[in-house]
Specification:
alpha+beta, three-stranded mixed β-sheet
Length: about 210
């Protein structure tokens, strides 16, 4: 015979909710795995319940659209702190990674590849040259160009920065198990991939003013 444990916090209609030890099909909720949040439980101190206005969740600020930027800012802060200890910024990391992955670039192309305006990229290139992490050499294609390439010291520094990024990630995701971290990463990759494709979620262009 299965036993049911009453939950704290009742549904709005006053009916008693239960956790069914056996996970039946009679409308009772299945007991979650130890350490796993129960999506039907009343909101607890950890705020694990996702907001859904149809189900009487506590606050619209529990929506992923609000939580993801908060998590992103926390991640950026942790990464920036660790990079700063190495005298680097995310722009330095992005530029070294672009050169290591895609090979030598002309400065305007390197700026675009790193997601920077050329005016912002040039001081970063100068920093990397001053610390001897990259080299610049001329090439001739119709006219003279300078091409930036990462050297062995730059690749070694990039590995160190990747290690710092991994440590920042571990700090941010400390509350999650290894399995939960892998699941979160997979879900975020799916969300980001879908966001890059045009579709119903693509922001609409502003309407042209009527003359």
């Amino acid at each position: 015979m299965r036993t049911a444990v009453p939950l704290r916090g009742l549904p709005p209609d006053g009916r008693t909710a239960h956790l069914d030890h056996g996970g039946g099909t009679d409308g009772t909720a299945v007991r979650p795995h130890p350490g796993e949040a129960n999506p039907r439980a009343a909101p607890g101190a950890d705020g694990a319940q996702m907001y859904d206005g149809r189900k009487g969740s506590p606050s619209p600020l529990q929506q992923a659209i609000h939580l993801l930027p908060l998590a992103g800012r926390a991640a950026e802060l942790r990464l920036a702190q660790r990079l700063a200890e190495r005298g680097m910024t995310r722009a330095h990391l992005a530029m070294l990674a672009a050169l290591a992955e895609h090979g030598p670039h002309a400065k305007p192309d390197l700026a675009a590849r790193s997601g920077l305006a050329l005016a912002d990229a040039l001081p970063i290139v100068a920093d990397l040259l001053a610390t001897r992490l990259v080299e610049v050499f001329p090439v001739h294609i119709d006219r003279r160009h300078e091409v930036v390439m990462v050297n062995a010291a730059g690749r070694e520094r990039l590995e160190l920065l990747h290690t710092e990024a991994a440590a920042a990630q571990d700090d941010l995701l400390r509350p999650l198990t290894r399995g939960e971290r892998a699941q979160l990463n997979a879900l975020l990759r799916r969300v980001c991939a879908a966001a890059e494709r045009p579709g119903p979620g693509t922001p609409r262009a502003a309407a042209a003013p009527q003359g």
